[in-house]
Amino acid sequence: MLSYVTGFLFSEDLTHVVLLEKQSPTWQKGLFNGVGGKIEKGETSIKAMSRECKEETGVTIPESKWKCFAHLTNPKYFELDIYFAISDLALTAKTMEKEKIHIFKTNDIPKNIIPNLQWLIPMALDENLDFTNPVVFIEN
Q1: Residue 1 in this model has a pLDDT that exceeds 90
Q2: Nearest CA among 130, 123, 39 for reference residue 81
Q3: Which letter, b or e, does each residue of 14-52 get, where b requires 16 or more Cβ atoms within 10 Å of its Cβ?
Q4: How many of the other CB atoms lie within 10 Å of CB of 9?
Q5: What's phi and psi for 135, nearest 5 deg?
Q6: Do residues 18 and 33 make contact, with C-beta atoms less than 8 angstroms apart?
Q7: Of the candidates 29, 99, 28, which has an alpha carbon nearest to the alpha carbon of residue 58?
Q8: What is the mean pLDDT of residues 88-108?
Q9: What phi-psi label fits residue 31: left (phi over 0), alpha (psi between -120 and 50 degrees) or beta?
Q10: Residue 86 neighbours by CB under 8 Å, 6+ apart
Q11: What is the pLDDT of residue 140?
Q12: Of the candidates 119, 96, 100, which has an alpha carbon nearest to the alpha carbon of residue 109?
């Protein structure tokens, strides 16, 4: 099974979010997604999230700032830990690799996003939710 992370880096006032314009895999090309990627062998999910953010945006967000709020899995194929972090360093994110970084207003997210971002971003922003434990979603 493949293991991945993705995360949403929000500005302190929660008015901006960092998203990547995906080039691969093919089904994601041209869509926006959170920052993230594969968890490397021997690496924890939280370490992967912090590493991927630094590699893709040039921004270092300490592991302690990332909150895993959801876990999506299809037990036969993949598992995905979904994080968010809040820091004004979001406003300094820049393209570091082939996938271009964009900083969007949270009330003006583009239409061409990975479909589950339509509800994952508002979920991350919902201050009434308790993320003591990540919400688990299982695909069959």
Answers
A1: no
A2: 39
A3: eebbbbbbbeeeeebeebbbbbbbebeeeeebbebbbbb
A4: 27
A5: -75, 135
A6: no
A7: 99
A8: 97
A9: beta
A10: 10, 11, 12, 14, 65
A11: 76
A12: 119
Q: Residue 20 corresponds to which tokens in the numbers above? A: 């990547």
Which pair of tokens denotes residue 5?
């992370």
Of the candidates 128, 5, 127, 2, the residue with the CA atom closest to the CA atom of residue 66: 5
CA 92 to chain centre: 16
pLDDT digits (tens, 9 = 90+) for 68-86: 999 999 989 999 999 999 9
Residue with tokens 């990627």: 37
Question: Residues 6 or more apart from 99 whose CB is under 8 A from it?
Answer: 20, 21, 22, 23, 56
> Helix/strand/coil (H, E, C) string of 113-139?
ECCCHHHHHHHHHCCCCCCCCCEEEEC
Residue 96: its pLDDT value, please?
A: 97
What secondary structure does DSSP assign to 53-70, as a single string? Answer: HHHHHS----GGG-EEEE
